Amino acid sequence: MPATPFPRQAAVSSWFDTVVAQKLLQAEQPLILDALLGRPAQPWLWLAPVPFAPLARELPGRGVRLHRTARGYAGDLVCTLPLPLPSESVNAIVLQHVLGADAAALLEECERVLLPGGRIWLFALNAVSPYRLRWRRQGLVARPPGSWRGLLEQAGLPCTDPLRYLGPVWPTRGGVGSATSGAPLRAVCLLQAEKRTAAGIGPIPLRAPVRWRGSTASI
Fold it and tell me: In sequence order, which residues have a C-beta less than 8 Å from that of residue 217 and are 6 or more positions away?
């Protein structure tokens, strides 16, 4: 679904507008497309830090693409939190580089709009990577992966898969690879979580009637 054109506001310009950050976002795109293509014909939500670059493949099903602005979000919708979506209305959510200020509130909204069994893919800058020298010069503060895991679980979205990592380790001028590995010092980490609901209580079988085997008193 093509995003609705929205003029860039000067106040929203950030590290994610730089060439280096754009390479990171492009390295994440194949993983995002694979995640959404794995659930064809399912409604989805994709939130990015900046307006979307052209996609390599067309996305399936119905979806909403939003990017952050100085006043909230824009794209297919113009909104703030809470999101103008019905509860339990989407089956997949992609979050790219959520800001720390409203991270907890946004994850609570994600839990609300996710269908039971729906999944969330959260891409975050890796705070323990030496690559952090790139964004710290811009005043950007990243959360450690364990902190994101805690916020997801606090919102009712337990992580289901091991952490994945992508991007470079050192802040060199070279390109950004898209391959993922277990290297915990790469620039970006990916957390995956799922909305789980408690199983209903099934029917309880009746106990066999108690038969009195003793003698009965007669009057």
Answer: none
